[in-house]
Amino acid sequence: MSERPFNVLSIDGGGIRGIIPAVVLTELERRAGRRVADVFDLVAGTSTGGILAAALSVRDEAGALRWTAEQLIDLYISEGPEIFSQSLTDKTLNPLGLLDERYDDKALQRAIDKYIGDARLTELATDVLLTAYDTEGRAPFFFKSHVAAGAQSWNHRVSDAVRATVAAPTYFEPHLLTTATQRFSLVDGGVFANNPAMSAYAEADRIAPKRPVRIVSLGTGSLNRRYPYEDVKGWGVVEWIRPLIAAVFDGQSDAVTMQLDELLDDRHHRFQIELNGASDDLDDVRPENLEALRGLGDALVEGATAQLDRVVEALTDR
User: What is the pLDDT of residue 234?
Assistant: First the structure.
């Protein structure tokens, strides 16, 4: 009898565009009749995907899973406008985030406290991997519940992991994580793994080396803003800052998709949609854009309904 596949969920970064994978996961939970943490052995996330990965795995006081995917859609609708808001002073003196990070993190921290609470990595309902990058050590940094289970010094608060993975450069200040012997200056893991599926694949192989890996990978919308040669040929540092961040995030996501298609073939399921009719900005929280993003999530589900059915059948076939 062959080994049961090790099921991995991977969720890309993308700021407010996290509405899209939240909608897909809502439909996955509806069709499966089970919660995300009950059908996946490992949930990986970067930035907004890290918020979803953590929130879908935290427990309430009674030990039950605290949030459904559907409830997390409201995180973006209700909390997003507060998280991505600027004071009048910042709008006047620092409108584009050129002098300092664009957003204060008070509303972000309140949302993390509300949805994540005080849980430690080992208290999550399934294994979780969240990505960050250490600017002092100049190296990728991973929050891994599997590692935390065997080393108390790595059993960080989940809220620290989430705050680190969402610290997108120029948007929010880095998160300073200190231990008894070390300190880490952490920013958004999207700088090297906006699509964390390859990192999750490596982690799955460490946790269960004898089991085949199945990955369900959720994007936050393919960028469709074009930058013609005539425009970019004269750009300097200031003009390139935001487009370059977007290009790094999007290019890495697509590269990982191609690599895992080759490695896993039909055990890699990627759900992604072009951002037609919605902004590709990480922080566009206008009501009409939030509605457009939610509509894209619905369109993605409708357009990939057969694929989603196959995924649900495979995940629930125990």
Answer: 85
